[in-house]
Amino acid sequence: MIFVISCFPVPGLAGAGAINRYIVALAQGSDLLRAVRVGHSALGRPILALELGDCSRGPVLMVGGTHGMEWSSVFLLLRAAFDLASPFGEGSFCSG
User: Fold this and answer.
1) In the prediction, which pLDDT does 89 show?
2) pTM for the complete prediction?
3) Is 60 exceeded by the pLDDT of residue 48?
4) N or C, where is the chain less crowded by C-beta within 10 Å?
5) Rounded to whole angstroms, how far apart are CA atoms 39 and 54?
6) Longest Cα–Cα distance in the chain
7) DSSP 36-96
8) What is the reported pLDDT for 86?
9) How many Å separate Cα 49 from the centre of its chain?
């Protein structure tokens, strides 16, 4: 599964740099996630993807933050990646 998150500032919540740092921190904190750069935005900002599991056999692609006012999709994908990478951790949807 691949999560591609186009980062742009979210007014009052997080800037593109903070979101990219969170993506990298998620990948560093999990054996299942890898952060990869898949390109750059028109403004030169890196576009990062999180790979979950083995993506060599036809990945599932989830994209968020494509349009300027779609802030919720960024946070939903980050939460989905976090939950899927730690399904049995404390506080996850599987822990009860």
Assistant:
1) 53
2) 0.71
3) yes
4) C
5) 21
6) 43
7) EEEEE-TTS-EEEEEEES--TT---EEEE--STT-HHHHHHHHHHHHHHH-TTSTTSTT--
8) 75
9) 6
CA atoms of 74 and 76, how far apart (whole Å): 6
* Type of residue at 45: R
Structure tokens at 29: 């904190």
Nearest Cα to Cα of residue 32 among 8, 5, 9, 3: 3
Give the SS3 label for residue 24: helix
- Residue 23 pLDDT greater than 60, yes or no: yes
Name the one residue in this structure whose structure tokens are 């494509």: 66
Q: Select, from the ranges 11-15, 17-21, 26-30, the one with the highest average predicted confidence (pLDDT).
A: 26-30
Cβ pair 81, 91 in contact under 8 A: no
